[in-house]
Amino acid sequence: MLRVKDLTMRFGGLVAVDQVNLELKEQEIVSVIGPNGAGKTTIFNCISGFYKPSGGEISFRNAPIHNLPDYKISKLGMVRTFQHVRLFGNMTVIENLLVAQHRHVNTGLLAGLFATKDYRRREEEAMERATYWLEKLDLIKVANREAGNLSYGQQRRLEIARCMVTEPHALLLDEPAAGLNPRETRDLNELIMRLKLDYNVAILLIEHDMGLVMDISDRIYVVNQGRPLATGTPEEIRNNPEVIKAYLGEA
Ligand SMILES: Nc1ncnc2c1ncn2[C@@H]1O[C@H](COP(=O)(O)OP(=O)(O)OP(=O)(O)O)[C@@H](O)[C@H]1O
User: Fold this and answer.
1) What is the pTM of this model?
2) Which CATH topology does 1-77+169-251 take?
3) 86-115 burial: b if 16+ Cβ within 10 Å, else e
4) Residue range 11-16: average pLDDT?
């Protein structure tokens, strides 16, 4: 579904990502791990169209995407969350989910002005999807609260809901467990598994919580100083001497 070939990203003289290859298949959970500053978020920014890569190729569902801007990539069905929550803090929870869908589906201005039948049907469907995901993510009781007033854990769930209302094929999660307590992390673990199994979403994950990574990943890529270091199953990665050295070297 997603193929990254020889991805390179330079910032001036700094090579933040150096010839990284990566693949995400249907219904897979794949994690990208590595010490701080390894280049993980930069890889995500290139894949999701926030940065234009300096080199390499990225394809999604057999179409090249490395020259596309972020909004076009999300329309193709690949959406992401951010390391630092980015919601519309002054809008209500439900409004955040409706806006996400408006930006995704092109509803013409005229159709909106004249409230055509087709427009009303799409509005209803958007509301149904929003309600469905609020229930799934235990946010229905706060549907009318301003997003900025939610607890941190709720905001992180809302970010995932905001992705899921667009019914994506692939979901990129940037440190979803950061700042969560152990119970919230366990719920997140369960949720990510459900997204894969029940909604057929392929998931690419950046995460520092090794318990979560080892538990849910089908495969793991390790990057160090922008370069690929190892790839394999959780078991293989856990026992890889190069990986152990890279992590211990950091400590
Ligand atoms: N926009 C940018 N301009 C210049 N340098 C950048 C930019 N974004 C990232 N970098 C640099 O690229 C390198 C990789 O950063 P990146 O944020 O991708 O690492 P990371 O693995 O996601 O780190 P962390 O685990 O701390 O989030 C770092 O040296 C960083 O300073």
Assistant:
1) 0.89
2) Rossmann fold (3.40.50)
3) ebeeeebbbbbbbbbbeebeebeeeeeeee
4) 94
